[in-house]
Amino acid sequence: MGKNHINIIELSDEKIHENEAAIRIGKAAAGKGVYLLGPVKEKTQLKAKHKGIIKINLEGLNAINNVDKVTFATRHNNILVEKDEVIGATRIIP
């Protein structure tokens, strides 16, 4: 794999793993027509449960993206999405 180092971290009670953080953010953002996939490598995808119009809370999205080492990307607001289409993703940078 070309890896020369192994990093070991000890999490305090106040810190959580990147994958857990991605799941929590995804769940908090998902509406009733959305389900989560992942996490895979600190990334969780949000997908549409059915065909419909996506509604994005832009104020909430901006607030999440202002958190250091957190990225939350979505499709554009008020567009038609198909069932099982990826509509967003969270990524936590370790």
List its salient traits.
Aldehyde Oxidoreductase, domain 3, globular, two-stranded antiparallel sheet, 31% strand, 4-stranded antiparallel beta sheet, alpha+beta, 2 helices, 94 residues
Q: Quick gist of this model?
A:
The chain has 94 residues and is an alpha+beta fold.
Structure report:
The chain is α+β, with helices and mostly antiparallel strands. The chain has one domain (18-92): Alpha-Beta Complex (Aldehyde Oxidoreductase, domain 3), CATH 3.90.1170. It has two helices and six strands; from the N terminus they run αβββαβββ. The protein has helices spanning 18-29, 58-65; strands at residues 34-40, 43-48, 52-53, 70-74, 80-81, 86-92. Strands 1-2-6-4 form a four-stranded antiparallel sheet. Strands 3-5 form a two-stranded antiparallel sheet. The chain is globular, with a radius of gyration of 15 Å. It starts with 17 loop residues before the first helix and ends with a strand. The model has no long low-confidence stretch (mean pLDDT 87).
Spatial strand arrangement across the major sheet: 1-2-6-4
C-alpha end-to-end distance: 20 Å
CATH topology (level 3) name: Aldehyde Oxidoreductase, domain 3
CATH class (first level) name: Alpha Beta
Number of strands: 6
From the spread of the alpha carbons, the general shape counts as globular
The overall average pLDDT, rounded, is 87
Order of helices and strands: HEEEHEEE
CATH architecture: Alpha-Beta Complex
What is the total domain count?
A: 1
Regions with pLDDT < 50 over 5+ consecutive residues? none
